[in-house]
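Hi X.,

You mentioned you wanted examples for the new student's onboarding notes, showing what a folding record looks like when two proteins sit in one file. Here is a clean example. The first protein comes first, with its sequence line followed by its structure tokens.
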Amino acid sequence: MTKVDFYTGSNDKLRTACQLSHKAMQNGVRTIISTHDDATADALDKLLWHFPATAFIPHCRSDAEEAAQMPVVLNYGSDKFPHHDLLISLHNECMPFFSRFERVIEIVSHDAEDSRIGRERYKYYKDRGYELRHIDLTGMQNS
């Protein structure tokens, strides 16, 4: 069954997604980052080219020919994936395809509305019996 991790208190959800995908890549875990719109996918694409500062994370869009070979794949608007290791979801709702993945990461910011929506997602997973883990990023991040 899919394991779900909630990372709360993020100062910058896109940067947190980059940090988590970099850590996954270092551990040999392939990652899909799913966004709620194309503009967010574009912003992530740009950020991943310069993250971390001394390297970069090989990545592409999910519809790219080389997607199956990339450690990080950006997804917007598709439910077809080259692998099902880790899903980092940047959506406000639980995506219908999340259970195909071994692990899901949900990122929640400090924003009151984002926190409220994050609690709804947490309840959704909990009510369905998914194994949940909570990681509080407050005080662990540099702006």
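Then the second protein repeats the pattern, sequence line and then tokens:
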Amino acid sequence: MKLRYMIASMLLAAFISGCGEDSIETISRTKTPEEIYLMARDYINGYDHEISHDKAFLLYSMAAERGYPPAEYMIASLYHTGSMVEADMDKAADYYIRAADHGIVEAQCVIGGTLFENNGLKVSEDVALDNLMKAAVSDSKAKTQLAYLYLTGTYVRKNVKRGLELLNEAVKYNEPRALVALSSAYINGDFGVEKDYYKGISLLNIAVAQHDNLEALIAYSDVYMNGKGVAADERRGLDYLRQAAERDSIQAQYLLGSYYWKHQDYAKSVHWLTLAAGNGMTPAQEQLGYLYANGLGVEQNEDTAIEWYEKASLRGSSSARYQLAVLLSHKADRADRISELVSDLAELARTGDLSAIKKLYYLYAGSRSPELQSGAEEYLQKILDSKNMELITQIAKERFSGSVNLYADKDLAFRLMNYAAMSGYTPAQIQLADWYRAGEIQNEMNSEENNSMNAYIWYSIAAERDGTAKNSRRNIHLRKDEVQRANSEINRLKKEINNK
């Protein structure tokens, strides 16, 4: 600390030595830290001096090194924002902590805020929580944040009673987020609070009247769109949501985009999701990727879809990484990048996680890269080993006709469906019968003449567990000798199935 003070003094001397009563010796001997702090402000505002940020910063530094709390907070803010000096998060944290320890509530709030957002400061959770608790004694925003921690059991032992107490304390000061949170508790019965629409909407009315309380507009939208304590009015609810979105509420922009997506108005969905995505909303970025990949509301553009999925994946979305891998698999030279993107899925697949195995199968089987396609067999075998007949049947259907994810392969589809049918899975037996009846299966194991007989056989086997199969069988007409042969085959297949 002494070294920093000496350096600051030397630099300050270089600027203001020889300036009469403003000399460094005079300032050090005659000025209190508070007076030095006020002198710094004069250099910022140009009172009795030319404006000089360099001199202001050095004066703030001198006052801070002499332990003046407001100066410590000011220096912390300057390092934090990169104003007057190059940003330095370590120094910012150091000065914030010093100011907080000297009782500067604003500093305590900034440090506590690291529990809720990445503001660049590197402080431990314990230090952040301790400062948030100190700030919550007098600061209504800190009370609201601490209430959230108690209500959710985040960083602290869950204590709903204490959380609600803090919200009520913050509401006395009309704290915007506290008003919305407590109104939501009454309207939705959150945290075990008994529903009381009158109390909830009364609090929400106060919040909506606050000009910058965009969260209140979103909450009001929910009230009207879902008829919570008022007559449902979707148009009015959308209007509140749109007001918040037009005033740059990222959450409102995302909710509007999602609303129009649900109602298949994809052009409007793209408009609002683009705004939310541009403001860093990860789910919006991911949804935009899907819309561009599938040409919904916009002209189909895989390159643009890849850009949005890239943004979402960089922000930690595992589903975006997978969708990005799917799109890149359409390009023949991206195998290494794809393997990197799905490394987490590959690790899960090694533990037998069927969801991961399924995703990897779809990815590799649908790839245009021969290198990746060869990997599909491994995951298909894992699926067969899982004995999950529903999934096997689903894949068989998609391989039969082709889908967005998979190329058509009727021979493979038949083998998979036959495997599921022989394993006793009734839906697969019915699907196999449907294919035979429609004449869809033509290979060395079947000829056009006996399609009807095979359909009859599988409908008959499925009929023991499914009444619709019995009805379907009635529509197949066989000769007497064909019925006899079919019954013989039915008995043989039943024995084989039972033995499995």
